[in-house]
Amino acid sequence: GENVEQHPSTLSVQEGDSAVIKCTYSDSASNYFPWYKQELGKGPQLIIDIRSNVGEKKDQRIAVTLNKTAKHFSLHITETQPEDSAVYFCAAPEGYQKVTFGTGTKLQVIP
Amino acid sequence: DVKVTQSSRYLVKRTGEKVFLECVQDMDHENMFWYRQDPGLGLRLIYFSYDVKMKEKGDIPEGYSVSREKKERFSLILESASTNQTSMYLCASSLGRLARNTGELFFGEGSRLTVL
User: Fold this and answer.
1) Which one in A69, B12, B91, B94 has a CA-CA gap of 20 to 30 Å to B4?
2) Per-10-residue mean pLDDT for chain B, 116 residues long?
3) Cβ partners under 8 Å of residue A27, min gap 6
4) A89/B42 Cβ within 8 A
């Protein structure tokens, strides 16, 4: 089955700096890579995704890059703000229903 | 907006008790999922269902069972709770069978279960 590795497990940045979270996956057939944000006391929520026919996608301060050859994808958050503090999960599909998640990155933005 | 509702936010049970965790979604989604979340282990899939009365084992089904009698409701059952099942349980749903294409999972807020 799909195996998704995520690094780092924790990340502290100063407000205004950038944050980068990286994930690798094992299944070459995977073609859809979402990122979820989990705020304290809530369930994860999709924030951005990328499909295998593009290499990069941006949405305001967040961007995701994908390297299919190397089987890795990354989340980039620029100009971080305190409300970006949360746990972030990358994920990759396995088959038609299953989604395999990474182990999560706890991001702390220090004001 | 899609709403996934988990019946209990916090539960405390004793070892050996039978535990029911209920989940309801209001957007006519075909797929429903139960995940378990533990620190350092991320989200691990317990069971999922792509149709009424259909179920598939996920990565960690041991000690759990599920029931999907109606499309909107997916229940997780711990037949005999054990202390190693103390965890956060997250229910999710997604639109259709082609999750590979549609992708987005909608999560409930979680049920934190403590087994003493």
Assistant:
1) B12
2) 88 97 93 93 92 91 96 96 97 73 82 97
3) A1, A2, A3, A92, A94
4) yes
